[in-house]
From TrEMBL:
InterPro entries: PAS-like_dom_sf
Species this chain originates from: Paenibacillus glucanolyticus
The protein's name: PAC domain-containing protein
Superkingdom, natural source: Bacteria
Length: 214
């Protein structure tokens, strides 16, 4: 395959990724960005006129980007850690930040890796990838909220052998409400086949019909 064709294919692959990529030189100058990253930045308020290439990554401010939606990025990013990756003092560095836009927060994972060249194995800057992790962050936040509203259950729970009420302190309550008040669960009620046969024998024959689903 001709070299020019390989380069073209590689460039097409880079610009077709579902994540943003940025290359910065050892002194922090932005050398290259792929199209998804430029589109991501413009989607959240950066002017299309902003000149990324040739700008010092370490000197960019939220004011330059023209949007307060990037304030969280500058609050959490550790520029010295990125410089340590370029210097070979850290193998990698990553952080998460939220971008506000259209009334919602979009969560992004930024991963910083040293840019190595196969011919000399020296660090020639850093590659930064930006991935939208919003759907995963929402699940994480929901799990944290659920755990925050959960109470640890004791190792032994006194339960009535007849009515199955649970004793808490001096009170007795249904096992459903006992668990619902302490765990992120909600019971729905059904009736099992054995109870149908015991309580409604007149209708239980339908349970033996192979054409009726469970």
């Amino acid at each position: 395959m001709p070299y020019d064709t390989i380069i073209t294919s590689w460039n097409n692959a880079v610009h077709s990724l579902n994540k943003g990529l940025m290359i910065i030189t050892p002194d922090g100058i932005i050398d290259k960005m792929n199209d998804p990253l430029i589109a991501m930045a413009e989607q959240y308020g950066v002017s299309p006129e902003f000149k990324w290439q040739g700008t010092s990554f370490f000197d960019i401010t939220s004011q330059q980007l023209g949007q307060s939606s990037f304030d969280h990025f500058f609050d959490v990013v550790d520029f010295p850690a990125i410089k340590d990756v370029i210097a070979g003092k850290l193998p990698e560095y990553s952080f998460e930040y939220a971008v506000s836009g259209n009334g919602q927060d979009i969560w992004v994972l930024c991963e910083v890796m040293p840019l190595l060249m196969s011919d000399d194995n020296l660090i020639h800057g850093a590659m930064l990838s930006f991935t939208d992790i919003t759907k995963f962050k929402h699940k994480e936040l929901l799990l944290e909220q659920a755990l925050a509203h959960s109470y640890p259950l004791p190792g032994h729970i006194p339960i009535c052998a007849v009515c199955k009420y649970v004793r808490h302190a001096e009170e007795w309550e249904p096992v459903e409400s006992y668990l619902e008040s302490r765990l992120p669960i909600e019971f729905t009620h059904d009736i099992c086949p054995d109870c149908i046969r015991r309580l409604y024998p007149k209708y239980s024959s339908i349970l033996d019909d192979p054409q009726i689903p469970d």
